[in-house]
Amino acid sequence: MRFQSQKVAYWFFATCMLLLSLQIVYGFIMGFARIGLDGLHDYIPFNTARATHTNLLVVWLLTGFMGAAYYIIPEESDRELYSVKLAYIQLISWVVVGVIAIIGFHFNWWEGRKFLEIPRPLDYLVVVNVLTFLFNIAMTIWEAKKRSTTQLVLFFGLLCAALLYLPGMIYFDNQTIDSYFRWWVVHLWVEGVWELIMGGILSFLLIKLTGVDREVIEKWLYVVVGLTFLSGILGTGHHYYWIGTPKYWLMVGGIFSALEPLAFLGMAIWALNMYRKKGKNHPNKIALYWTLGSAMMSFIGAGFLGFAHTWPAVNQWTHGTLVTAMHGHLAFWGAYAMLVLAVISYAMPNLTGRKLFTGMSGYLAFWASNIGMLGMTGALAVAGITQVYLERKLGMDFLVVQKEIIFHFYGMLLAATLFTVGITYFIVDFIRHGLPSNEALGKNVGDLD
């Protein structure tokens, strides 16, 4: 690490690992409930487990983005973080709000709006927390010795993510209007401004890991940003098909949803092209695996599988089925989860000075988790297509269909077990790295820039 204040990132990454572990636990609770092993139902009903599972996903990814920003921004700005103390206060308050929210879910204290279940009083605390984070990052950039496209794209992605949280806090009595603005948060995060964050982090990692000139990599970043805004904003329309909005959203949503894979395709081509042009071999191959893997898997999960069921003629059958879960799992994994694991894999040797990327456990973590995720995606795909045919085409009762597709959840649980083995290897490696070391200050392992 080049700056003492980058140590802050370690504690955000450690929180990530804890929250990811907890998310997996709740995933298994739901998986076992799907095959009839619902012994925890009296304590953790399925709807509680689902809300906890999905909200933990959002929280640990946001925590990872914050940790990435606290590591990347000082390096890109060529100066220490504006306030280390403020960063630690922000992390502690972030964890406290998260713990209260998760406990609240188990006592039915929530809003009941998917991905935005967090109770309204806690919303205001989240706003204060994120404003504190953005202030710290903004002041670091403001007082920086230099500016970079990577630095600014990452910051504006984080800023826009914060601004787009606000529409979800507006209260509406009408469910259609409420859903309309809820998608401003959910869609414009994951298929809009989070892609800017993804682009900024990818740019940083590619500069560090490939040795390609910064100017070349950042020119590609402009292309990715342009494709994101071209398709992502009006692509929100594919969530408006069946919620009571005007029919023109069928056309708008259909056309721009067809364009949405372009941004992810651009990222995949960008990453692979930079790897092909690399000038030197960086020793941290594990970080490179996660970086390139994120670019490719995001195109498959978010781009291709998203387009496969968002066209109106298809979506009228697949909407609200396990086909959506199939797309969601691989999309979040490829686009954002793998990216967070990539920046952790790059940062940890630099923070601690321990070069654990030379061992086999990192490769086992990568391949086991990715094969496991592909297995889960496949199981959910078969279950979802079967559900569409039996329920939507043949008109069978929902609960009857759920019994018919139980077998596929056995397959999903086996794949989830392999995925968990991979994540366990990753977490064990994280722990083996130990705490940040002063001996690592002033240098990065194998950097090419």
From TrEMBL:
The entry's keywords: Electron transport, Membrane, Respiratory chain, Transmembrane, Transmembrane helix, Transport
Residue ranges of coiled coil: none
CC per GO annotation: membrane
InterPro entries given in the database record: Cyt_c_oxase-like_su1_dom (IPR023616), Cyt_c_oxase-like_su1_sf (IPR036927), Cyt_C_Oxase_1 (IPR000883)
Transmembrane segments: 12-37, 57-74, 86-110, 122-141, 153-172, 184-207, 219-242, 248-275, 287-310, 330-351, 363-385, 405-428
GO terms classed as biological process: aerobic respiration; electron transport coupled proton transport; respiratory electron transport chain
Cytochrome oxidase subunit I profile domain span: 8-394
SUPFAM superfamilies recorded: Cytochrome c oxidase subunit I-like (SSF81442)
GO molecular function annotation: cytochrome-c oxidase activity; heme binding
Pfam families found in the cross-reference section: COX1
Name of the protein: Putative nitric-oxide reductase, NorB
Provenance organism: Leptospira vanthielii serovar Holland str. Waz Holland = ATCC 700522
